[in-house]
Design a protein that fits this description.
Elements: H1 15-23, H2 29-47, E1 50-53, H3 55-70, E2 82-86, H4 113-120, E3 124-129, H5 163-170, E4 176-180, H6 187-193, E5 196-199, E6 220-224, H7 227-237, H8 264-267, E7 271-275, H9 285-299, E8 304-308, H10 316-331, H11 353-364, H12 367-379, H13 385-406, E9 412-416, H14 432-436, H15 443-448, E10 452-456, E11 467-472, H16 477-492
Parallel strand pairs: 2-3, 2-4, 7-8, 7-9
Antiparallel strand pairs: 1-3, 4-6, 5-6, 5-10, 9-11, 10-11
C-alpha cells in the first residue's frame, strides 16, 4: 500500500477517479477518508459547511471497504466514496436538526430511503451539512446554528437551502453530497458554488426519511464536481420505494447504463429549446454572457437549438409562495415541542399544554419559518382557500402545461439557473421578496415536477461562478445528463 494521499490530491479526485484509484490500490478508503477529515478541520472553520462530523463511524465503514478490497470482493462505484449529507435526511442513530432549534436534540430512529441505498453501496458518510431552517431559504443564512460561506468568496452566500452540501463539494470537503430541491435548493447553490447539482423528476427518488418542507415539491438529488459523478450518485439513489407512495420507476422500467455512459450519437439528435422568458430583464449581463458561451459550446457539438415559450413563467414565484407555505403549515404542525425534541428552559408561568406548544414553537422556529407557517395557515383558512390556494394550484397546472407543450417540440430546455451570481451575506435578508426572486428560474421545474441539472458555465478568471440548467422531460434524466456529459467532455478536454 502506498503512503497516504497528499492533501492536494483531493482537489483532483472525482468519484470516478477515486474508484479507479481505489481498485488500483493507489490509496485506501481509510486514507482518503482521513485526508478529508484533516481538510475539513483546516478549512471548514471559515466555510461552515458541516453541522456535525461522523468521524468514528466513517473510519469503521472505510476499513470495511478496505477489507473487502483486500479479499478481492466486487466493489461498486460508490464503495468507500466520502459523501456529505444535508441535515434534512434521517440517518439512524445520528442527530438530524433540519437547521432548526426545535429539532436540535432529535436523533433519527431510522435511515432515509436514500441513505439505506447508499449504505448498500458502501458509501462513506463524512457528516451532516448546514441548511436554511427546514430548507426555507436561498442563502443558508436562515440556519439556526451558523452561516455557511461561499468557498469562492467568504463574503458571499453559497446559495440555499442546500448551501452546506454545495460548499462542501466546491471546497473539496467531500467527493459528493446529497441535498434537496423544493424550488431550486440544489440548483441555485450548485450555480453559486460552481458545482453540478441535479433535481430529479418528482418521484424518481424516494422521499422516505426526508423531513418534509412541501411534500408535492420536495425532491432529493446529488451535488458533484462533474456531471458524470452526479449521474453515478443519481443512479444509486433512484427508484421506487415501498415506503414512499409517490416514488416510481421510470416508464421504461429503470435507469440503465445510459445515465453514466450516454450514447453520444443519440445525444446529438436531441433538440434543445431556449425559452425567451428566461433571458429577459433582470438577468445580469455577466450571467447572460456565460450562459450564452455555454450554449454556443453545446451548439458546436451539432446539437440543434430552437426557440420555445413558457408563457406562464412570470406567475411561478407568486404561485409557489402560496402553495409552499400552505404545505409548510401542514407539515410543520407536527413539531410541537412534545414529540421529536424538547425545547429546554421555556421560562416561568408555563401552566398548561397550550403554553408548552406556544412557547416551544415560538422559541424553536426562526423568523423565516414563522413567516411561512403564518402565511400558509392564512391561505388555507376559511374564506381565503379558494381565493389563494386553489387559484395557485390552477396556475401550477398552466405552468405544467407550458412544459408539456414545449416538450412536443424539443427534448430539453436550456436556461440560466439564477439571474445573478452569488450575492453578499446580509444583502437580501431584510427583503424577503428579493430573496424569493433568486429562485425565479428554478421554481417552474419544481411546480411541473420535471428534472433539471445545474452545470457550471464558463466565466473569466477570478469571476464568481455562474450556472446554466438543462430541464428535461419527466424521467428523462438521461437526456439532460447526456448533454451535460457531452458538454463536459469538450470543456474538460477528456
Amino acid at each position: 500500500m502506498n503512503a497516504p494521499a497528499p492533501m492536494t490530491s483531493l482537489h483532483e479526485l472525482t468519484i470516478k477517479t477515486f474508484h479507479e484509484g481505489l481498485l488500483a490500490k493507489k490509496f485506501s478508503a481509510l486514507e482518503i477518508t482521513q485526508a478529508f477529515f484533516r481538510r475539513i478541520r483546516e478549512q471548514d472553520r471559515t466555510i461552515g459547511a458541516y453541522l456535525a462530523l461522523h468521524e468514528e463511524q466513517a473510519a469503521m465503514d472505510a476499513e470495511r471497504v478496505d477489507v473487502a478490497l483486500a479479499k478481492d470482493e466486487p466493489l461498486g462505484m460508490l464503495a468507500g466514496a466520502p459523501l456529505a449529507i444535508k441535515d434534512l435526511l434521517l440517518m439512524k442513530g445520528e442527530r438530524t436538526t433540519a437547521g432548526s432549534k426545535i429539532l436540535e436534540h432529535y436523533t433519527a430512529s431510522y435511515d432515509a430511503g436514500v441513505i439505506a441505498r447508499l449504505k448498500a453501496e458502501q458509501a462513506i458518510f463524512l457528516g451532516k451539512t448546514n441548511l436554511d431552517e427546514f430548507a426555507m431559504g436561498s442563502s443558508t443564512e436562515n440556519s439556526a446554528f451558523q452561516i455557511t460561506r461561499n468557498p469562492h468568496d467568504p463574503e458571499r452566500v453559497p446559495g440555499g437551502s442546500s448551501g452546506g452540501s454545495a460548499a462542501a463539494v466546491a471546497a473539496h470537503l467531500a467527493l459528493g453530497a446529497l441535498g434537496t430541491d423544493t424550488g431550486g435548493s440544489i440548483r441555485e447553490p450548485a450555480a453559486f458554488c460552481g458545482v453540478v447539482g441535479l433535481k430529479p423528476t418528482y418521484g424518481a427518488v424516494s422521499r422516505s426519511g426526508l423531513i418534509a418542507l412541501a411534500s408535492s415539491l420536495d425532491q432529493i438529488g446529488p451535488f458533484a464536481a462533474t456531471v458524470e459523478d452526479a449521474a453515478i450518485l443519481f443512479r444509486a439513489i433512484a427508484g421506487k420505494d415501498p415506503l414512499d407512495a409517490t416514488s416510481a420507476d421510470p416508464p421504461d422500467g429503470g435507469y440503465g447504463d445510459e445515465l453514466v455512459h450516454p450514447d453520444f450519437e443519440r445525444v446529438r439528435k436531441l433538440v434543445v429549446g431556449v425559452p425567451e422568458e428566461y433571458f429577459g430583464a433582470g438577468v445580469e449581463e455577466d450571467v447572460l454572457r456565460s450562459v450564452e458561451q455555454a450554449r454556443k459550446t453545446i451548439e458546436s457539438l451539432k446539437i440543434s437549438f430552437k426557440k420555445v415559450s413558457l408563457p406562464h413563467t412570470k406567475y411561478a414565484v407568486a404561485a409557489y409562495y402560496i402553495i409552499l407555505p400552505a404545505e409548510v403549515s401542514a407539515n410543520l404542525a407536527r413539531f410541537d415541542g412534545i414529540r421529536y425534541s424538547r425545547i429546554p428552559d421555556l421560562g416561568p408561568h408555563v401552566k398548561n399544554l397550550r403554553d408548552i406548544y406556544v412557547r416551544s414553537r415560538g422559541k424553536g422556529f426562526g423568523a423565516e419559518a414563522k413567516r411561512r407557517i403564518i402565511l400558509g395557515t392564512f391561505v388555507l383558512s376559511s374564506g381565503y382557500y379558494d381565493a389563494y390556494y386553489a387559484k395557485a394550484q390552477q396556475v401550477r397546472a398552466l405552468i405544467r402545461n407550458d412544459f408539456v407543450e414545449a416538450f412536443k417540440e424539443v427534448d430539453v430546455i436550456f436556461a440560466p439557473v439564477t439571474p445573478t451570481p452569488a450575492f453578499k451575506i446580509g444583502e437580501k435578508t431584510a427583503d424577503p421578496l428579493a430573496m424569493y426572486l433568486s429562485d425565479i428560474f428554478t421554481i417552474p421545474a419544481n411546480l411541473a415536477g420535471v428534472p433539471a441539472v445545474a452545470i457550471p458555465a464558463p466565466t473569466p478568471e477570478g469571476a464568481l461562478p455562474v450556472g446554466f440548467q438543462l430541464i428535461g422531460k419527466p424521467f428523462r434524466e438521461a437526456d439532460i445528463l447526456g448533454i451535460g456529459q457531452y458538454y463536459e467532455r469538450i470543456v474538460r478536454g477528456s
